[in-house]
Every structure is written in C-alpha cells, then in structure tokens.
Design goal:
Elements (H helix, E strand, L loop, with lengths): L3 E10 L4 E9 L2 E6 L7 E2 L4 E4 L1 E6 L2 H5 L9 H14 L2 E10 L9 H16 L6 E9 L5 H6 L7 E7 L11 H12 L3 H33 L2 E5 L4 H10 L3 E3 L4 H9 L3 E5 H6 L9 H6 L5 E3 L6 H12 L5 H6 L3 H6 L16 E7 L2 E9 L2 E2 L2
Parallel strand pairs: 1-4, 1-5, 6-7, 7-8, 8-9, 9-10, 10-11, 11-12, 12-13
Antiparallel strand pairs: 1-2, 2-3, 5-14, 14-15, 15-16
Helix pairs in contact: 2-3, 7-8
Length: 379
C-alpha cells in the first residue's frame, strides 16, 4: 500500500518564495504542494516547513568518540549520539568529516578513524540512523601519515567527499602566526621554547609532505569519482592550485580575495554557520556574513555546532539585504546537495525526497519541532 501523508497549514519555504498551504507526501517523495489549506492531514499550526538540511563538513562526531583526553567511547554508541543530535538540528543528510593524517590538534589515531567509519557503515546497514550519512575525509596533507590513513579507505564506497588541508603554521588558516600561537599554544599548554620547536617541526613536515600528498590524494579522488574540496585557501595562488586539482567546493576561504577567485573559478564557496551567527571567524579570518552580503557565499556548514546550520539560515534571511528566507535556506539545503551531486533532495517540489523540517520561530531562535526523512519521522 502506498504511504501517504499531508502536512497542512504550513509556511512552506520553496525555492523562490514562501507560501502558506500544504505538502502532500507519497512513498517517501513529495507528491504535491498547494497554496491552499485543507482540513485533511496534520496541522502545522502556521510553522515553517523547510527542506531537510544538508551538512557537508562536520567534525562533531569525534567529540562523542573522544569526549576527554585519553577517553574512547564505544564507536557505535558515539555514532548514534552524533546522529541523534544531527537529526534534532534538522539535518537529514550529513557528510561525517573524519580526519586523515594526524596534526597538532589530533586526539584520535588513524585506526580510531577507521573504527568510526566502520561504526557508521554498520549502522547504515542495520538501519539504526535517523539521517542519511556519507563520509568526508579531511586530509591533512602536511602530516607524514596522511597517505597511510587515506589507504584505509581505498575501497570504501561511502566516501563521497575529500578535502585537502594544511594546518601548519604560516599556512592558509594560520598565515597570522599570532593567531596560530594563541590557538595552539594555549590549547596544548606549551612553553615558549616548546612552541617554537613545535612550529619548526610542523613547518618542516609541511615542506616535506604537503605537495606530494596533495597530488596523490587529488589523483586518487579523481580516479574514484570522489568530489574534492579545498580548505582555508587564502591567496589567488591557492585557488589556482585548487582549480588545477579539480576542486568543486572551496571550504572556508580565509580572505575575500580567495572567496571571489573561487567563485570565478566555478567552485561553490562554503563557510561556517557559527561564523555567521557570531558575526565573524574565531581565527580572525574573513566574515561569512560579509561574503553573503557580497554574494560570494553559496553553502553553509555547521562545522562544530550542529544547530548553528538552521540558526544561521533564519538569521541570514533577516539581516542581509537581498537574501530572503528562500535564498538563505538554499545555502543549507539545495546548494550543498547540488554541489555533491545529490539532486534528489534539497528543495520542496514534486518528485524530490520528502526530507522536511518543521520550524517555529521563538524570539528569533528557530525551534526544530519535527523532522522527516523520506516521509518518515526521525526527530
């Protein structure tokens, strides 16, 4: 028997406008939208109905697996906790970002990452998860063990996205060594001499490894059809390098120049939703809100706070001239879906997956009330 459902009396955020009406769902797909209300179906009480959010870069999972230094939680339990928070934030499709190559910020090893990926894939097969999960490999190309970590995923069909990053001092996100020192020296509790030696080692590793690892991983991704993202590009030269590698998504460009060049090169520009909500970057880099105002921002990512994605979408729709709610919501649904080739979701229109989120605004804060994935309630 076909599964049918009507969501009635909702403010429906379509691709170009917001209408008050109803959405009909059949067999996990959107069957119809109407600008009239009926007595049939479930009353949305005037709440917003938006497409399920699509998250391309969240490293939030590691916090559940390694919640304290030296502590390791059960991998499946960690995945379930992460998944529950993701779904409750309105995210119905998530690319779980797993680090490849240990850097100065790592509290997990390569085998830990593989255990987490196995737990995700086992949970997908067992139908335990609320959201639709894919893998995103965050490849720290400066790290000596980067290629060894990447090899652990050589035949993994769940890997759909990989980002090329270099977090060594003086590079990309941390061209300002003062910001690098503030972040890492304080976090790792180093003396001045220890920090100096640490920077020297990391610079040497970057000089020895980054170029070769980047070429190798980019080539492997192209051969396997894995979409490539750059990370923290700061200069025109960085963008040119990304374009030559076949990069399609520019993650977190650190300057307005790099963001503009990425757009001109045909890449989708992704920035952090926390940057939007806070009004600036925690590293002192370019403001995502400023890029949105300049029409240089395509995609938002929750990065380290899952709920920031829906929060930033409603916030942008209020504070940035020229961006209405449909355009803001597209940055967390339609645009990221299209950037990675998931053209079956991201918009409320007939034929698309019925991935939907019911949202009520309460004193300017979006409250996620109900989440459906392919027509089935998951939160």
């Amino acid at each position: 028997m076909p599964r049918e459902m009507i969501l009635n009396n909702a403010r429906i955020v379509l691709a170009e406008e917001v209408i008050t009406g109803s959405v009909a769902i059949r067999d996990g797909r959107i069957a119809d939208t109407a600008s009239t209300t009926t007595k049939a179906g479930e009353d949305m009480e005037g709440d917003f109905l938006i497409p399920g959010l699509v998250e391309l870069h969240t490293d939030h999972l590691e916090r559940h697996y390694a919640p304290r230094p030296g502590v390791r939680w059960n991998p499946v339990a960690s995945v379930l906790a992460h998944d529950a928070q993701i779904a409750a934030s309105g995210i119905t499709t998530v690319f779980d970002a797993l680090r490849i190559g240990l850097d100065e910020d790592a509290d997990v090893e390569a085998q830990d990452v593989r255990h987490l990926a196995d737990a995700i894939e086992e949970s997908i097969a067992a139908d335990r998860l609320r959201a639709d999960h894919f893998l995103h490999l965050r490849c720290e190309v400066s790290a000596p063990d980067c290629l060894a970590g990447f090899a652990l995923f050589e035949d993994d069909p769940h890997v759909k996205l990989a980002s090329l990053m270099d977090h060594s001092p003086g590079q990309r996100q941390f061209t300002d060594l003062g910001a690098y020192e503030m972040y890492y020296r304080n976090k790792l509790k180093m003396s001045e001499d220890d920090f100096r030696r640490f920077c020297e080692r990391r610079r040497a590793e970057s000089g020895q490894n980054s170029a070769a690892n980047r070429r190798s991983i980019a080539r492997g991704c192209r051969e396997r059809g894995i979409i490539l993202a750059s990370h923290d590009d700061a200069t025109i030269e960085h963008v040119e390098e990304a374009a030559a590698d076949g990069v399609r998504v520019a993650e977190f460009p650190t300057t307005a120049i790099a963001a503009s060049a990425s757009k001109e090169a045909g890449m989708a520009v992704l920035m952090g939703a926390p940057n939007v909500v806070r009004g600036g970057s925690h590293s002192g880099n370019v403001s995502a809100r400023a890029l949105a105002e300049a029409d240089k921002l395509d995609i938002l990512s929750s990065d380290y706070i899952p709920f920031s994605l829906v929060q930033a979408a409603f916030f942008l729709g209020e504070v940035v001239d020229g961006i209405g709610l449909p355009q803001a919501v597209a940055k967390v649904s339609k645009n990221p879906a299209e950037a990675v080739g998931l053209n079956d979701r991201g918009i409320i229109e007939p034929g698309r997956r019925a991935d939907l989120v019911r949202v009520r605004l309460d004193e300017g804060i979006p409250v996620v009330r109900t989440v459906w994935r392919e027509g089935a309630r998951v939160a």
